[in-house]
UniProtKB/TrEMBL annotation:
Residues 4-171 form the AAA domain. The lineage of its organism: Bacteria, Pseudomonadati, Pseudomonadota, Betaproteobacteria, Burkholderiales. It holds the Pfam family AAA_31. SUPFAM superfamilies: P-loop containing nucleoside triphosphate hydrolases. This is Cobyrinic acid ac-diamide synthase.
């Protein structure tokens, strides 16, 4: 079974789609794995960046009982299950129907692919709940701002609640510090607050604010394939984060389980 990894935060604008796309590309390029990317965010940012890998099945179909099979690419790359505006309708469906169907379909994909990466919507609802119930690891990107840290606390409560009730295999792999500005006193103070409250989950690496990253994704490329010198430092940071993240997902450097934050 391949790992099923969620990129999620109950606050938008923290870079979860960016990191989901880059992580999938890193698994394919560096680890030579076959990766299925599921985009559950109706904004479809991941789908735009990975549109050349579209597999012919939309994300809404994963919430139904019958889904056409998706074969892993022969060249160990990516198969995209893209988002659409119809995903918003899932929130109005009956949970007891759509969540088991989604979990079953994701389990099938995890048997066929080396990894399944899920980009989630920035709010708690049926889609995020279904993803958490189907996954075994969560990566929570965060910007070092007050409201973003509040969003992490909300996300942790949700993760541990799902683990207790529905999915004992689920764990928070890490919190990733994204778009870090080393010159910002406010961000440095927020980082100290984050380390104080969530030390066991915070990855000891961070991704700085880098123009090369959005530029690369706009071109449909991972940042390490962007032919610019400015992409080099960004690539080093991103790859370091993913190496440490993968260690935690594989279990070689796992944070100590704790109860949900109060």
């Amino acid at each position: 079974m391949g790992n099923v990894v969620i990129f999620g935060n109950q606050k938008g604008g923290v870079g979860k789609s960016t990191l989901a796309v880059l992580y999938a590309c890193w698994l394919a390029d560096v680890r030579r794995q076959s990766v299925c990317v599921i985009d559950l965010d109706a904004q479809a940012n991941s789908s735009k960046s990975l549109r050349r890998f579209t597999a012919g099945v939309e994300a809404t179909q994963l919430f139904g009982q019958q889904m056409r099979s998706i074969s892993p690419p022969s060249d160990k790359t990516i198969a995209l299950v893209p988002a659409s505006k119809k995903l918003a309708d899932i929130e109005l469906a009956r949970a007891e129907m759509v969540i088991p169907a989604f979990r079953s379909n994701v389990t099938t994909l995890a048997r066929d692919f080396d990894a399944v990466v899920i980009d989630t919507p920035p709010a708690l609802g049926l889609r995020l709940s279904a993803a958490l119930i189907a996954a075994n690891a969560v990566t929570c990107p965060i910007e070092l701002e007050e409201y973003s840290i509040d969003g992490v606390a909300d996300m942790l409560r949700t993760i541990f609640g799902v683990r207790r009730r529905y999915n004992p295999q689920l764990r928070l792999a890490t919190i990733v510090l994204n778009r870090f500005n080393p010159h910002s006193l406010r961000q440095k103070a927020a980082m100290q607050d984050l380390a104080l409250n969530f030390r066991e989950f915070v990855l000891p690496a961070r991704i700085s604010t880098r123009s090369a990253i959005p530029e690369a994704l706009a071109a449909g490329l991972p940042v390490w394939r962007l032919p610019k010198s400015a992409a080099r430092e960004a690539s080093l940071e991103v790859m370091r984060v993913f190496e440490l993240l993968q260690q935690r997902i594989d279990g070689s450097s796992e944070p100590t389980p704790v109860d949900a934050p109060a």
